[in-house]
From TrEMBL:
Pfam families: N_methyl (PF07963), T2SSG (PF08334). Keywords: Cell inner membrane, Cell membrane, Membrane, Methylation, Transmembrane, Transmembrane helix. The keyword Cell inner membrane applies. Belongs to the GSP G family. It comes from Methylophilus luteus. It is found in: Cell inner membrane. NCBIfam families: IV_pilin_GFxxxE, typeII_sec_gspG. The chain crosses the membrane at residues 12-32. This is Type II secretion system core protein G.
């Protein structure tokens, strides 16, 4: 009778698996914060770009009607003729008034404390002040 050799089952030892897990953990600990920091920066850039677009729309509304909307009318005046002005030529935004990148509405105040009007986002934390991604993004 011929002798058959049984194939040996080779695998990873527990020590090898632990070493790989530690390396993956170290890489994630280094790369993760850098990645999320870039996401925060892009949200701030998006908010600044949206504020600039809203400013242009507000300026166009002012050119047409002769005035900026009141605080009560708010940014909705860019989409609907809230005071039935015959000179209103909107809507002034194609897709409606956007929320800030954190899902909260932009704040609008007329007359403004920092200019003719104030247009701003409270940032990631949704509260006045803050730093980094939580800082306020403003039109002034």
């Amino acid at each position: 009778m011929a002798h058959r050799s049984v194939p040996s089952c080779s695998g990873f030892t527990l020590l090898e698996l632990l070493v790989v897990m530690v390396i993956i953990g170290l890489l994630a600990g280094y790369v993760g914060p850098k990645y999320f920091q870039q996401i925060g920066k892009s949200e701030v850039k998006t908010a600044k770009a949206q504020i600039a677009a809203l400013e242009q729309s507000l300026d166009q509304l002012r050119l047409d009607t002769g005035h900026y909307p009141s605080t009560e009318q708010g940014l909705n005046a860019l989409m609907t003729n809230t005071d039935n002005d015959t000179r209103w030529s909107g809507p002034y935004l194609k897709k409606g008034v956007p929320n800030d990148p954190w899902g909260k509405p932009y704040q609008y105040r007329f007359p403004g404390q920092h200019g003719e009007y104030d247009l701003f986002s409270y940032g990631k934390d949704g509260q006045a002040g803050g730093s980094d991604e939580s800082q306020d993004i403003t039109s002034w």
